Amino acid sequence: MDETDFKQTWAPNNADSSAFQLVESPAGTGKAMQINYDFNVSPGYMGVGRGFPSAEDWSAFDGMSLYVKSEGNGHKFVLQLSAGGVTFEAYPSLDAAVDGTLTIPFSEFSPASWESAEHQTATLDANLLRNISRFSIYLNDGDVEYTEPWSGGARPRSGTLIVDSIRCVNVAAEQARAALQAVIDQAAALNQNDYTAESWERLQTALQNAKRQLDDESSSIEMLQTAATQLQDAIKALQPVASDDEDEHGESVKDEEAINHATEESGLARTGTAVTVVALAMLLLIAVGSIVALGRRRVRR
Question: Above pLDDT 70, what percent of the chain?
Fold first, then answer.
């Protein structure tokens, strides 16, 4: 989608079209939508939305995901769906900085506060999801929406918000994919030189399988979870390479050498003592022999 198509597809609300533009996605997926908010220019709120020429059926999914990058601003982030004549909203938090994929189950969408009383009890179920006519993104001024102060201090009056990769998902599968990606990242951060060749090879086999399952859109939740478990087991089974001070069993070579050295010194000490005792015994025998000989000589006289 180029800038012209973007402007024709997405229509601004309480803001000029210049407040929305295409930029290179920080996620590396091509172009993303950048929202340049300024509540001094757009009091209260500002947003952008797109309608669908014919109603879309989202009933095969139980949630949606989107990439979001925000510095954290304390304002109210609104995702809005028009389904079967009822407007539903969800409110992902922007209290802290965000730079990643957010997954929002459709169960977290509720009727907009300004909807009619008869619609306030509506649920975004499969029947309504078969009739999606519009999707919108809003940023409401937190100083107007909230009575309590933002934990981050004064809310910025202007800034940017980047949104990309908006799609319908099955939430459980997305959670399984996110969990598998986390284990893959953990394995990728390890250093081959720290582990034995055999255990490292087992890790690489599990890692390659995990990447295949992650890249395969048809991978079931069970397959994703199994791949994550196998990779975790391979990480736990890694055998550290013995250092210069350890043998192949991980025992300290220095300790063993110290023990041997002490034993050798002890042996030498014992040997020395034995030699001394023998020498003294010989001297005593010689002395006794001399006394006996002298005694005999005296008897002869």
Answer: 81
